[in-house]
Amino acid sequence: MTKMEEQQLTEARKKEIFLALVEAQDRELNVADSRKHVSKQFGISERLVRQIEREELEHEWPPLD
Fold first, then answer.
1. What is the pLDDT of residues 2-14, one digit of tens each?
2. Looking at the 3D structure of the chain, how many domains does it have?
3. Among 8, 9, 12, which residue's Cα sits nearest to residue 65?
4. 55: buried, middle or exposed (CB in 10 Å: 19+, 13-18, 0-12)?
5. Environment class of residue 38 by beta-carbon count within 10 Å: exposed (0-12), middle (13-18) or buried (19+)?
6. Which residue of 6, 24, 37, 58 has the fewest C-beta atoms within 10 A of its own C-beta?
7. Contact 31, 46 (CB under 8 A)
8. Would residue 20 count as lying in a domain?
């Protein structure tokens, strides 16, 4: 995924990625492993996964909506 594609992720897609991250951690993956898992699952960089995590904190997204 290119930087342009990363910038074009919809909020809904970001929430889907965040939910996958939460679910991975619920399955007892540690934070680093859950980021790796989700980045591979969605074909995005771990940097983008961390960016989505930060966005979640800023907007206080519920893990399930």
1. 555 556 789 899 9
2. 1
3. 12
4. middle
5. buried
6. 58
7. no
8. yes
pLDDT at residue 55, rounded to an integer: 87
- Contact of 40 with 34, CB cutoff 8 Å: no
What is the rounded CA–CA span in Å between residue 40 and residue 65?
A: 23
Token pair belonging to 4: 């342009």
In a domain? residue 65: no
Instruction: Judge contact between 56 and 18, C-beta under 8 A.
Output: yes
- The domain of 48 spans 3-59
pTM value is 0.79
